[in-house]
Amino acid sequence: MSTPAVRDPGLQPERTRLAWRRTTLSCTVVSVLAARAALHRSGGAAGVLALAACCLLWIGFLALAHHRLRALVPARPAPLPARWALGAVCCAAGLAVAAGVLIASPA
């Protein structure tokens, strides 16, 4: 009879922390590129609103990621609450839409 493998409780939270950091970095890159597009093009009021939306959504995602990273400190962290997951998805999707508006706006 073989003994069951011992699970290292530190690996899964570490992988999850790394995934949150990668996603935060991706959102930061999208926000910077959207801001660059807004500064190099004069998109009018729609461009300013899209840039403001990008900034607010980026800050919202950073706050969610920060709270989640702090929650992952123990070896057995609590599951991600549904409202945090929904908030992260809404921030990422909204950021993509707002950045798309900025990039697609005429020069």
TrEMBL record:
The organism's place on the tree of life at top rank? Bacteria
Could you identify this protein by its name?
A: DUF202 domain-containing protein
Species assigned in the record: Streptomyces fungicidicus
